[in-house]
Specification:
This protein is 46% helix and 16% strand. The protein has one domain: Rossmann fold (3-Layer(aba) Sandwich), CATH 3.40.50.620. It has 167 residues and is an alpha/beta fold. It has a 5-stranded parallel β-sheet, sandwiched between helices. The protein has 8 helices and 5 strands; from the N terminus they run βαβααααβαβααβ.
């Protein structure tokens, strides 16, 4: 039976472990891989034009939701484009473009990264959430957030639905 898998995008070299595991499951059972971003990040160019690289008006505008929709769309596209290496790993393992999707978790409730991932997992009727084992070894967390992979695992485990796979 085809599976619907949620793969949170954490900036880490260990992320690719989760990508490879998702590809293995797709090859065995078919289905869909959905990469979830927990935060919209302005482009490096936007930060460069905004000053000294510290917390800036751009960060404050992002947090307040006072950014042009065109900029947000552009930044989302750039984040998706940044997954080229992950897509190539999937393609090399037989996953087709039609089996890959992308979502941006709703962090409007400000409950944090872990809860945003769990909320998406519940709302999207996913069969599984795949995290890299390396996230736990290296205590990887979303930059600028306090949530760790352990927090994500705990939030997903509390759900009455998707399985948590640690690759």
């Amino acid at each position: 039976m085809a599976k619907k898998m949620l793969v949170p995008v954490f900036p880490s070299d260990r992320f690719y472990e989760a990508v490879v595991r998702a590809a293995d499951i797709i090859n065995d059972e078919g289905g869909l891989i959905v990469f979830v971003f927990t935060k919209i990040r302005p482009s490096p160019e936007a930060y460069a034009s905004d000053g000294d690289g510290r917390t800036s008006e751009l960060d404050l505008s992002m947090d307040a939701g006072d950014v042009d929709v065109e900029d947000i769309d552009k930044w989302r596209d750039q984040q998706i484009a940044g997954l080229e290496e992950a897509r190539q790993l999937l393609f090399d393992r037989g996953v087709r473009e039609s089996q890959i999707e992308y979502v941006f978790a709703d962090d409007a409730d400000t409950e944090g990264t872990a809860q945003a991932i769990a909320d998406e997992a519940a709302a999207g009727a996913y069969d599984m959430v795949i995290l890299s084992h390396g996230y736990f070894e290296n205590e990887v967390n979303e930059p600028g957030e306090d949530n760790t992979a352990q927090d994500v695992a705990h939030a997903v485990a509390e759900l009455d639905g998707p399985s948590l796979i640690v690759a």
